[in-house]
Amino acid sequence: MIEHQTTPGWVAVENFLSEVVVRPDRGLQRAVTAAVDAGLPAIEVAPNAGKLLKLLVQLSGARRVLEIGTLAGFSTIWMAQGLPDDGRLVTCEYLPKHAAVARTNIDDAGLGHKVDIRVGAAVDTLDALEKESGPPFDFVFIDADKENDPQYLEWAIRLGRPGTTIVMDNAVWEGAVLDTSMDPENAPGIVSALQMMGEDPRLDGTVIQTVGSKGWDGFALALVR
Ligand code: SAH
Ligand code: DHB
Ligand code: MG
After folding, report:
1. Phi and psi angles of residue 9, each rounded to the nearest 5 degrees, phi first
2. Whose CA is nearest to atom 9 of ligand 2?
3. Which bound ligand lies closest to the C-alpha atom of 187?
4. Is the CB of 43 under 6 A from ligand 2?
5. pLDDT mean over 107-125
6. 162 Cβ partners below 8 Å, 6+ apart?
7. What is the side-by-side order of every strand in the sheet holding 64-68?
8. Are 76 and 115 in contact (CB under 8 A)?
9. DSSP assignment of the chain, as one string?
């Protein structure tokens, strides 16, 4: 993980915005506490980004959401809150311990009936989902191992449809997208995924840079044409 160079002002403003505008409910607050208590890394999306995910799910009218990278289920809960009661969210998590913490958090938030957690390498789960040939996903959130970001983007198109919304976290990675030697393991995958968003005729995309408790990063947004 890259060292964060945060300016205290960014974090103070994020806290202000979270309290005044975003207002995460008890279920979301408990999910963060439970993740800390279980010793999971504090790499979930910031509350203002989580709320953006919820609103984007609602704005896109999504009924089926795919998430790649569950951790403790914080972003999962935000997106599930944006789904109608009969909506479904499939989330992919490699580590059984993370999946177990997420299961408890999502159930405690009253959203268990909407969320299917699939444990294993995401590429295997994505392959299995294609074989299940269910309806396409309307919304995809990519937030797992960054080296596979281009593959996940390809899967999002394959399991989606024209009009599917794709959000990819960590699109700036403390500026390592300009100097991949800052993180040779993860940065090249992020850069390839961004190039794909720009060049692939099946996609139309943009990236919003962000600062706050998670440092300097970015949220990529793409629409499947
Ligand atoms: N979306 C979460 C944060 C995810 S952190 C939130 O905002 O709340 C990234 C997660 O991806 C970690 O839990 C990590 O274990 C998982 N992960 C890493 N590599 C993976 C892989 N190949 N397949 C599935 N999950 C993976
Ligand atoms: C890391 C992963 C993330 O998805 C994130 O938002 C921040 C950090 C990490 O693996 O270090
Ligand atoms: Mg992330």
Report:
1. -55, -40
2. 1
3. 2
4. yes
5. 98
6. 224, 225
7. 115-119, 88-93, 64-68, 139-142, 165-168, 215-224, 203-212
8. yes
9. -PPP---HHHHHHHHHHIIIII---HHHHHHHHHHHHTT--S-SPPHHHHHHHHHHHHHTT-SEEEEE--TTSHHHHHHHHHS-TT-EEEEEES-HHHHHHHHHHHHHTT-GGGEEEEES-HHHHHHHHHHHT-SPPSEEEE-S-GGGHHHHHHHHHHHS-TT-EEEES-SSGGGTTT-GGGSTTTHHHHHHHHHHHHH-TTEEEEEEEEEETTEEEEEEEEEE-
**For position 157, what pLDDT does the model report?**
98
Average pLDDT value for residue range 16-24: 98
In the chain the first and final C-alpha atoms are separated, in Å, by: 33
pLDDT of residue 177: 98
Cα separation, 157 vs 162, in Å, equals: 8
| Tokens (6 digits) for 207 | 């990236």
Cα gap 186→69, rounded to integer Å: 15
CA of 45 to the centre of ligand 1 (A): 11
145 CB under 6 A from ligand 1? yes
Tokens found for residue 120: 């294993």
CATH number of 7-224: 3.40.50.150
Ligand 1 atom closest to Cα of residue 69: 11
User: For the residues 145-154, what does the mean pLDDT come to?
Assistant: 98
**How far apart are the C-alpha atoms of 174 and 178, rounded to whole Å?**
9
